[in-house]
Amino acid sequence: MEISFLVLGVLALTSLAQGQDQSGFLSLDCGLPADASYSDPKTSLHYISDASFINSGVTKSISSEFSTNSIDRPLWYVRSFPKGSRNCYNVTTIADTKYLIKATFMYGNYDNLNQLPVFDLHIGPNKWVTVQILNASTPLVQEIIYDAPLKYTSVCLVNKNSGTPFISTLELRPLKNTTYVAQSGALALLNKRLDLGSITNQTVRYPDDVYDRLWHPFHLIQLTDISTNLTVDFGSHNDYQPPSIVMRSAVTQANSSNPLLVSIGDSVEYKTYQFYVYMHFAEIEKLEANQSRKFNISLNGTFWAGPIIPLYLYTITAYSGSAITGGNYDFSLFKVGGSTLPPLLNAIEVYYVVELLQSETSQADIDAIMEIKSTYGITRNWQGDPCAPQDYVWDGLSCSYNGTAPPIITSLNLSSSGLTGEIASDIANLKSLKSLDLSNNSLTGPVPDFLSQLASLKVLNMTGNRLTGTVPVDLLKRSQSGLLLLSVDGNPELCASDSCNDNKNKKYVVPVTVSVAALFVIVAAILLAICLKRRKKQAAVAGEMMEAQTRKTSDALESRKRQFTYSEVLEITNNFERVLGRGGFGSVYHGYLDDIEVAVKTVSPSSVQGYKEFQAEVKLLLRVHHKNLTSLVGYCEEANHLVLIYEYMANGDLKHHLSVDDPADILSWEGRLRIALGAAQGLEYLHNGCKPPIVHRDVKTTNILLDDKFQAKLADFGLSRNFAAEGDSHVTTTVAGTPGYLDPEYHVTNWLTEKSDVYSFGVVLLEIITSRPVIAKTADKIHLSTWVSSMLDKGDIKAIADPRLNVDFDINSLWKVTELAMACVSETSAERPTMSQVVMELNECLATEMARTREGRSPSYNSVEYMSVNLSAGLSPLAR
Ligand SMILES: *[C@@H]1O[C@H](CO)[C@@H](O)[C@H](O)[C@H]1NC(C)=O
Ligand SMILES: *[C@@H]1O[C@H](CO)[C@@H](O)[C@H](O)[C@H]1NC(C)=O
Ligand SMILES: *[C@@H]1O[C@H](CO)[C@@H](O)[C@H](O)[C@H]1NC(C)=O
Ligand SMILES: *[C@@H]1O[C@H](CO)[C@@H](O)[C@H](O)[C@H]1NC(C)=O
Ligand SMILES: *[C@@H]1O[C@H](CO)[C@@H](O)[C@H](O)[C@H]1NC(C)=O
Ligand SMILES: *[C@@H]1O[C@H](CO)[C@@H](O)[C@H](O)[C@H]1NC(C)=O
Ligand SMILES: *[C@@H]1O[C@H](CO)[C@@H](O)[C@H](O)[C@H]1NC(C)=O
Ligand SMILES: *[C@@H]1O[C@H](CO)[C@@H](O)[C@H](O)[C@H]1NC(C)=O
Ligand SMILES: *[C@@H]1O[C@H](CO)[C@@H](O)[C@H](O)[C@H]1NC(C)=O
Ligand SMILES: *[C@@H]1O[C@H](CO)[C@@H](O)[C@H](O)[C@H]1NC(C)=O
Questions:
Q1: Which of 319, 322, 320, 325 is nearest to 274 (CA)?
Q2: pLDDT at residue 765, as a whole number
Q3: What is the whole-number distance in angstroms between the Cα of residue 116 and the centre of ligand 1?
Q4: Which of 153, 381, 464, 569 is 20 to 30 A from 706, alpha carbon to alpha carbon?
Q5: Is 601 labelled as part of a ligand binding site?
Q6: Where would you say this protein principally sits, based on its record (predicted)?
Q7: At 612, is the pLDDT very low, low, confident or very high (cuts 50, 70, 90)?
Q8: Which ligand has the nearest atom to the CA of 340?
Q9: CB atoms within 10 A of CB 534
Q10: 507 band by pLDDT with thresholds 50, 70 and 90
Q11: 595 close to ligand 6 (CB < 6 Angstrom)
């Protein structure tokens, strides 16, 4: 008994610790002596010295009158930057990861000047914010949510001649990349994150908040605070994971008829801002059977989100899917649908977009210049990005800029820099270098050959060094023909004339040739190996395809095996006894081939067009094998009789299953996702697994068949065409396909691409989601995609789903699939995803849905509500 009790206790502790570890966190106490570290007693966060992340600045501590016990330990020291216009931290990040980055500034009269400085903060090559210290004893915190593009990120303090920049702490916290998604730029926190109706009246952060966001207590005298003692969102179902202690309280109106008003404010400067707003809701009152809470949110009088029905002790987050702009940011939460209780709001965050228009310098150039910096031990102002922003280019560099493309280093001037040793080979990696000045240093050794690889080089100055040997022929030639301005004076032991090169060349000509030849052999061998390896890999990926091609070589034998006589066909179908269906150019019959059920498709012999298609289909089907494509068992071509024999698909076509009425037969959301994924994989195989790629040209729900295990298989290749067979133009002579599914771009241009299939597949996805006809049977004949898009504009995502699903699905996956479908039906093909992307997305959606059904989480509404808003917007009861 006691032992098991102990074990349970340990388990509980472990799981607690796992949910709250600091992995990925970087907590720098700026100015702390190098190598020192400690755990902050208040937060248990582990702070380390910033010394190894920056190589400039001086360390100071705040003045004794401020370092009272009420000031947190990480604020006792600061690092300040009296020298240099830009000083940068270089922190390691994981590329393509989203981070919450926090910088804290507590002046505390550390310099005894009693002057509050103003300076800029940059993130990478872009300006983040202007830091204006307003109160010597109040820490100022700046927060930004930033998708780190590279394996390190620089945070720079920039002097604006209004006081010396300084910093107290710099902290990085990795976030889930599904949260806080901005369409462009980074998201900087506006003012403060609010814990409405706060229970503790304390700022909440780590360990209560696993992401260490700061939540500030907020009360408003006109509003009623409510709270619960129970944990909210135990198990963290919501990706945003606002802390339970924050969600346990909320504000409401005392009079339930009154709306709850939230405004970002009408400051003039906000007019040009783009905002993202996150409102977190959880029901914290146990409702009686005759009580309900249901409300909508409007922005500036226009519907924004809703209806919102907070779930008891679960967090729902409503947020803008796109930036809110326009200068008037008044939200109103008002009850709807006979709700007996007033709207509530537990927490709110508002961010503004910081545009990141300037790219980092190209990675290759950064790597090369960093190597050169360390080889020669250069200090200067070489911090942060070498070329950006343009006002802070490193001394001695010039760069070329082209719109938003990464800048490129074009000139390097290291004249009179006390350089010793040989000429660094990394210079050859600055591929766009036009000018290189190494004059007046103490460089030794030869003039290396790799300098001649710099194709753009126009100026090369090596005057005044101690270089030896000869100047490479190529450089001399370019100099003689006026392509290169070459200066090598003042190197007593360097020979820069053709004559010494002549000698040298003769002497070495044989070994050089040999080694070049040897190199060539080695390179050839490596290339060969790579090709073989690639082939093998391709074969592994498209194994069935290879098999198909091998089969082609033994064509005669194989085709005879698959060819049937007409009398055999009569036997198989028992004289065409049972009709399965009628297609565009023939009928389909049921049959038995050695006890195996088959579908036999006859092609009307009268149609020449049909005959061509017959041949095309046979050729294709013989080549193509995939678990999501109907396989051809055999065919008959005899006199006027054209017949195809397929495997039998016991469950008919998808269209039928989307329109059934018997509740027992209605496809579940998971079932629908599986079918969509199967069909997508089949199509993806046609596009990418086949050479040349095959465009199906008639993707629709009646051409997606289901076998006895409800595995989806694409059928009817009758209209397919090989790209190669069409010649280079890809223009087909007739527009084929089914109305409603037809790519509008193809329809106009006759230009056939894989993206035409993607369009049709998007329409299929919309049918799978909605179970509605592709073209409405009403007078206006509105297309399904138009209807869905109008529902999306209203923010009514749930109304899109087939009502027979009874809202039994994960709202996230519904949202994602709808977005995917809408992307597929984009007017222009360039905006449509590829089938590979579609397969990836559907895979993720299916995984989400399976996780949900396995957990048996029934609430139809899940942790996160997604609401896409195209309106403008702003924030809340914020006193600015
Ligand atoms: C600075 O903040 C402190 C405490 O927050 C406050 O007491 C003081 O009045 C403020 N000083 C100024 C100049 O606003
Ligand atoms: C999030 O990260 C995962 C894995 O790192 C990646 O597959 C996915 O595409 C990312 N999602 C977004 C929205 O960036
Ligand atoms: C928090 O502040 C509010 C408003 O100032 C006050 O009514 C409440 O009693 C305070 N709560 C605690 C725990 O101090
Ligand atoms: C929470 O617990 C405290 C102390 O046990 C109690 O006084 C208070 O009434 C409880 N609050 C609610 C909302 O249940
Ligand atoms: C609540 O507000 C409505 C509209 O503002 C008003 O008609 C009603 O009398 C109010 N109820 C109470 C109890 O104050
Ligand atoms: C709801 O039911 C409770 C009893 O269960 C009753 O006291 C209360 O008046 C009812 N409220 C409303 C609005 O009907
Ligand atoms: C809000 O409404 C007012 C008038 O109704 C309008 O002038 C203003 O442009 C609107 N603002 C936004 C952001 O839509
Ligand atoms: C940042 O530090 C990493 C190693 O920690 C280094 O490879 C990289 O070149 C540095 N970048 C800059 C801009 O200093
Ligand atoms: C700038 O970039 C564009 C598009 O990437 C390219 O077409 C153009 O040639 C570039 N211009 C220069 C001067 O490199
Ligand atoms: C090369 O450098 C020397 C010394 O810095 C300078 O005097 C000379 O003008 C430079 N030559 C060229 C071609 O720039």
A1: 325
A2: 95
A3: 13
A4: 569
A5: yes
A6: membrane
A7: low
A8: 6
A9: 10
A10: very low
A11: no
Q: What Rg, from alpha-carbon coordinates, does the chain have? A: 35
Tell me how far apart the alpha carbons of residues 810 and 466 are, in angstroms, rounded to a whole number.
72
User: Does the beta carbon of 300 lie inside 6 Å of ligand 7?
Assistant: yes
> Is 404 close to ligand 9, i.e. is its CB under 6 Å away?
no
**DSSP code of residue 24:** T
What pLDDT shows up at residue 38?
95
Dihedral angle at the C-alpha atoms of 770, 776, 782, 783, nearest 10 degrees? 50
**What is the atom index within ligand 4 of the atom nearest the CA of 227?**
13
For residue 177, the ligand 2 atom closest to its alpha carbon is 1
Q: Give how far the C-alpha of residue 513 lies from the chain's centroid of Cα atoms, to the nearest Å.
A: 49
| Binding pocket residue ranges, ligand 1, CB within 6 Å | 135, 137-138
Distance CA 758, CA 749 (A): 16
Ligand 1 binding pocket mutation candidate from 107, 116, 135 (most atoms within 8 A of CB): 135
Give buried/exposed letters for 381-414 (b at 16+ CB in 10 A, else e).
Answer: bbbbbbbbbeebbbebbebeeeeeebbbbbbbbb
Q: What is the set of domains in the chain, with CATH numbers?
A: 31-177 (2.60.120.260), 195-354 (2.60.120), 363-496 (3.80.10.10), 563-648 (3.30.200.20), 652-880 (1.10.510.10)
Decide if 780 is catalytic.
Answer: no
Of 52-56, 134-138, 208-212, 859-863, the one with minimum mean pLDDT is: 859-863
Rounded distance between C-alpha atoms, residue 37 and residue 16, angstroms: 25
For the whole model, what pTM was predicted? 0.61
pLDDT tens figures, 714-773: 987 655 544 333 333 344 444 467 788 888 887 677 777 889 899 999 999 999 999 999
Token digits of residue 756: 């035409």
- Residues in contact with ligand 8 by the CB-under-6-Å rule are 90, 92, 152, 154, 370
Residue 148 CA to ligand 8 center (angstroms) comes to 14
